[in-house]
Design a protein that fits this description.
Order of helices and strands: EEEHEEHEHEHHEHEHEHEHEHEHEHE
Distance between the termini: 19 Å
Number of strands: 15
Strand content: 15-25%
Shape: globular
Structural class: alpha/beta
CATH topology of the largest domain: Quinone Oxidoreductase, Chain A, domain 1
Oligomer: single chain
Largest sheet: 7 strands, mixed
CATH superfamily of the largest domain: Medium-chain alcohol dehydrogenases, catalytic domain
CATH class of the largest domain: Alpha Beta
Radius of gyration: 20 Å
């Protein structure tokens, strides 16, 4: 099969490799649609595996069942499936208290073979857990592939209760920031303010319900948010980017008793200096968000494939797997909102 192998930071080569064997109790999925995620790009362009190469990444996986183990009765050849990358055990304390996003025995998707390939092996453990969803007939696989990046956005807004009348600031107008804007409007937010350093991305974000845009290289974003909110600040501020400076600024954009979310991870080892007096005297709630619980994964999948969310509107570029490097560059420059790759590009199949 063809696969995009990472040989080192920024060194991604599409090559022929052995197709994975069908796991006992599992199945092999023919990958037909897979999103290119910001975390994938971070992993592919840094020494993410400390020299342990080559490796195949990719985790926003949708396709059809191509081969099934005789001991797997749950799925059949030809079924259209979305595979969430993290399978939760359902037994640890975190899972049993409703926080399966913090599962202590979750599947390690960053170390097993990913989906930037023609085929992807799904193990018996994944089959027995909560990570596989059938894609209904008539729903495009490209649409379904957006369920994975939407899951964390959905979980975040569910957890902080973005609701009717809220003023929300999103720092970072990439795909995740645009998801936040769209979902916030669906949840009833009165105003969404988007902050970024890229004019192209800011302009694109207006498609998804953003009311005001701020280029933080051209004006002080804190002053701009305070001006737009008549000096009150926002109900909720989500820092959806890898910048420590954005996290510092976020706490000054929130109103008294507001909520500040650190959604995007920063560079490993980077530390953010925070004015804790501001947090203390303004009664701010600081929330670090990561992942999605089992039920939130299901709910986000249902939303992603609905007409209400209009997932296709986020997909600006569809490329064959062979052009993965082009997709990375389109995303990094801000020209693309969401790139979806099509492995098995030579086959005439329904996507």
């Amino acid at each position: 099969m063809k696969a995009a192998l990472m040989y080192g930071p920024g060194d991604i080569r599409v090559e022929e490799v052995d197709r994975p064997a069908c796991p006992e109790g599992g199945f092999v999925l023919k990958v037909l649609s897979i999103g290119l995620c910001g975390s994938d790009i971070r992993n592919l362009t840094t020494d993410s595996r400390a020299g342990d190469y080559p490796h195949i990444y990719g985790h926003e996986i949708v396709g059809t069942v191509d081969e099934v183990s005789p001991s797997c009765s749950e799925y059949a050849v030809g079924e259209r499936l979305y595979v969430y990358p993290v399978d939760h055990c359902g037994k640890c304390e975190a899972c049993r208290t409703g926080h399966s996003e913090m599962c202590e025995d979750a599947g390690d998707y960053t170390n097993r073979q990913g989906g930037f390939a023609d085929y992807y092996a799904v193990t018996a453990t994944q089959v027995s857990r909560d990570s596989i969803f059938r894609v209904p007939d008539g729903i495009s696989l490209d649409r379904a592939s957006l369920a994975e990046p939407l899951s964390s956005v959905y979980a975040c807004q569910d957890n902080i209760d973005v609701t009717l009348g809220d003023v929300l600031v999103v720092i970072g107008a990439g795909p995740i920031g645009c998801f936040h804007a769209k979902l916030a409007k669906l949840r009833g937010a009165k105003r969404v303010i988007m902050v970024d350093i890229n004019d192209r991305r800011l302009e694109q974000s207006l498609r998804y319900g953003v009311d005001d845009i701020i280029n933080s290289t051209e004006e002080d974003p804190v002053e701009a948010v305070m001006r737009l909110t008549d000096g009150v600040g926002a109900d909720k501020v989500i820092s959806a980017n890898p910048s420590t400076q954005a996290q510092q600024q976020a706490i000054f954009m929130a109103k008294r008793t507001g909520i500040v979310v650190f959604f995007g991870g920063v560079a490993k080892g980077a530390l953010t200096e925070l004015d804790t007096n501001r947090i203390h005297y303004w009664g701010l709630w600081i929330y670090g968000h990561y992942g999605a619980s089992s039920i939130q994964v299901q709910k986000s999948f249902e939303l992603a494939i609905s007409d209400e969310f209009d997932a296709e509107s986020f997909v600006t570029h569809i490329l064959p797997l062979s052009k993965i490097n082009e997709g990375i560059e389109l995303t990094r420059t801000g020209e693309a909102i969401k790139v979806v790759l099509h492995p098995n590009e030579d086959e005439d199949v329904e996507r």
